[in-house]
Amino acid sequence: RQSISRFLWSLFLLGVGVAIIGILQLGAGNEFIYGLRKVYLRQPFGPYYSKAHGAAFLSMSFFIGAGLFFSQLNVLIKTWNSKLRADLFAKQVLLFFLLAIVMAGILSTDCQGAFFALILSGFCCLVLTTEAYQNKIKWVLRMGAILFLLIVAAYFYSSPQWVGYLPGATFLRRGYDRLNIYQDSLTLLQDFLTFGIGAGAFRQGFAAYKTNFLDSFVKHAHSDYLELALQTGALGFFVFALGLLYLLNFIIMVWKQSSSKALTRGLMFSSLAFLIHEVIEFSFQIPANAVVF
């Protein structure tokens, strides 16, 4: 268990480091990765060529950190009357501060996909971990937190002064081109439904189906699931879906047998946030993110 804890701490602290470097880069308008390689038509974020891919990693890192926070919180509650109380409390304050840094990094990327993935995964976390039959007070608190979150989101996204500032506020306008990519990709999929167009052939295959709305060369479908279906067809996607179901079943089994429920939940919803983000992103094709997942 100690080796797993160290590994999770490493991933979380790596996320903190990426968030700090990325925030400094965005604030300074730096267009170089580590001051060495200039990035064109994108905004680098830490070691990432695109800040959207950095946001995908930070989403995973945030839930890992949250799992660490709540697992340590349980220890603090159990040992509140011991001499270790001050040390454990200081550790919790530090963890909360580091979580705030990661969240600030996510918000600074202005990546609506990562933001909504984080919200949806957090919503699932609150709902699925509610055990109303065991503790009604916890159930009321969690449902209150969900209601508060929805009210805050509704307020910000219905206020004109926030449009164009918060991540996701301009989702429809900024996502117009991407929606057209999805539409043309679905047209391509209809002609190659069973076996797909072949692995690595998206750029060449999509070029023949691309409408005139885009002047640039489209390299990815901006949806890992859609691009996988295009390249491997229904058969390949079916195999992928079976793999995801096996992974889900494995995670549930580990969660039931785990002695640290909070830590396991953090891992579960870290993976869920990444999978949700992949609906409108292609981070599975970014080796750093794929390895962490």
Question: Characteristics of this structure?
Answer:
2 strands, 69% helix, two-stranded antiparallel sheet, mainly alpha
Structure description:
This protein is mainly alpha-helical and 293 residues long. It is built from 11 helices and 2 strands. It has a two-stranded antiparallel ribbon. A hairpin with a 3-residue loop joins strand 1 and strand 2. Helix 1 packs across helix 2, helix 1 crosses helix 3 (85-108) and helix 7 crosses helix 9. The protein is globular, with a radius of gyration of 21 Å. Residues 160-173 have low confidence and may be disordered.
Largest sheet: 2 strands, antiparallel
- Distance between the first and last residues' Cα: 19 Å
Number of helical regions: 11
Task: Estimate the strand proportion.
Answer: under 5%
Gist of the model:
The chain is mainly α. The chain is built from eleven helices and two strands.
Topology:
Blueprint: H1 2-28, E1 32-33, E2 37-38, H2 51-78, H3 85-108, H4 112-128, H5 136-157, H6 171-174, H7 176-191, H8 202-207, H9 224-257, H10 261-277, H11 287-292
